[in-house]
Amino acid sequence: MTSALTPFQSNHFDTTPQSVHIELGARSYDIRIGHGIWADPQTWQGLPKAAMALIVTNDTVGPLYEAQLRDAIQSHYPRVETVVLPDGEAHKDWQHLQLIFDALLTHHADRKTVLFALGGGVVGDMAGFAAATYMRGVPFVQVPTTLLAQVDSSVGGKTGVNHPAGKNMIGAFYQPSRVICDLSVFETLPDREYAAGLAEVLKYGPIADVAFLDWLEANVLGLQQRDPGVLVQAVRRSCEIKAWVVAQDEREGGLRAILNFGHTFGHAIEAGMGYGEWLHGEGVAAGMVMASELSVRLGLLPAEQAARFKSLLQSVGLPVIGPRLPTSGDTQQAQVYLDLMRVDKKAEAGEIRFVVWRDQQVAGVQTASDELVADVIHACLSH
Amino acid sequence: MTSALTPFQSNHFDTTPQSVHIELGARSYDIRIGHGIWADPQTWQGLPKAAMALIVTNDTVGPLYEAQLRDAIQSHYPRVETVVLPDGEAHKDWQHLQLIFDALLTHHADRKTVLFALGGGVVGDMAGFAAATYMRGVPFVQVPTTLLAQVDSSVGGKTGVNHPAGKNMIGAFYQPSRVICDLSVFETLPDREYAAGLAEVLKYGPIADVAFLDWLEANVLGLQQRDPGVLVQAVRRSCEIKAWVVAQDEREGGLRAILNFGHTFGHAIEAGMGYGEWLHGEGVAAGMVMASELSVRLGLLPAEQAARFKSLLQSVGLPVIGPRLPTSGDTQQAQVYLDLMRVDKKAEAGEIRFVVWRDQQVAGVQTASDELVADVIHACLSH
Fold it and tell me: pTM value?
């Protein structure tokens, strides 16, 4: 580890806009966080100049916010065009990525054209991958409209699409020019999506910051009620932790793996149920319960800590029990989970690597026997 | 310009294997050049380790060399799999890229799997783009089997596929782990492909090295007869010049543009005739004649120099007269060319940028009036 994470500082009731810097040399960028910051011209200052901007959004978010974003950026770009994708993880595929390329080509986009990703993680991943690969790379700006995207997917440069054989199988590491997190978008965010986003916020506790986890637990009411003062702190701290991890490991060679706490199990749930049935954050929540249980059984974590975390997840409306996955014939549930985890990107030569919670320390990555993992899965499944 | 190009040194009759280093920090790599070097175990030492290697080739090159490459690498990888694409630029598209992803997923490739691109530029670009985007990046090795790929496309990290609206519209900058140029493959290379490769070799003269151009002119017989002693020098020097350019401008922000000498016109020819009708090197050859003519008319180059270069291109069997492009209705030829050039990746906000040959200097990039360019095109077309 090359640098220590700065300690968590919370300022209750302080709703001033915040900025978090991601240090990646020539690819460094800022995350701007605040309530109503789209309306502040400063938010858009200093972005790459171009003859055209293309807003990439979806048919849920577009009607709510496209006009607002267009108003905010149109003084910076002579021409602003928009492409609208169908909403949902089920459409995060090459066929729909083509819609972005087609829009770029139809509007004669050049190598300077700036893409604005207006939406959740799916829009961000797809617009980011289009930006990474159109003419071998054009600039893009993340304008995340979900909590999940603000604290996780829009930060760190992961872009891509799904393949029938696996999630995010095709993609690139490609950094945005800026991430703009306006918390006012949460006013239109459905409860289920909001809770799914909180799963990723809560994740930052186990992986790196027990003090933050304690603070979240103490402010659970503010989280439930979407209190702007609590959210600005929660989003800012989440981004700080992610920035700290990403700055040390841009391309996921080491430390970055800890961001996948709960995700190995979670991806198996998402894939096993069929993409879109369980939201990513929901799979991660149930997956984090499994990862915590594994950590307890490996002797890395007191059982009480795992139980406290599980009830915090539950109190913000997240699932904490894994679903039984559709299976053909007599295959055992644990086997279905294990088979799905073995084709996960994070597996190496068929060996599954788990992120484990280590009490009072930064999380670690290790393998575990199929027997132990099967026991953990059975203990965390609905019966 | 941060560093000067080292002067050209030729050692006639010296066929010892050569190595050219591409300095790109953590993404640095070597190009190994020599006759019969596949058979030398040293050639394959030090490549990334993995449980599996995937050879990507096509149905022309595969039957000739796949077994030989497999023999060479199988002691390094427990498992070697192969995917065979249909040969030709016409298949350089997303649909065929999927064949590589499908092979990777079918064989349970992980993040360490090494791709070997065995073939010409199309295979290299596609395998490279698959490597750049499979699980957001796995290592790959270029094993170019055409002269064009050895001196140009396999060096520098450009990868991608075509889109119906333009060549290489979708792609990424992604560096290989090594480039292995075995000159013995030229024994099976058709005359037309060999000549097309020489177009890119000859290009390095105008853009950066008049001494090299003089040497090529003096050794035109050796080039025509595929003399190994001449070729090892020609390939090595071509790679040195490309390495010098790429090291200073990995992502094509400035100097790298000079590598596109003749390519703006050439891409218009390729696209206008329909991909595959004219080989890339053939379009570039006729395009370089146009770019030279433009340089003369801009007062940057003596007419005799342009004439000498044109006859050198001709003497190695390359086309030096542009084709009349298929057109609907009354559209003038020059207009057809201009329209095609305006959608080229190198155009910015509809403005076409031309690489020009500057006598005794490194090439430059500039715009020119449509009238002047139209005159140049008319002067260089078949009538």
Answer: 0.88
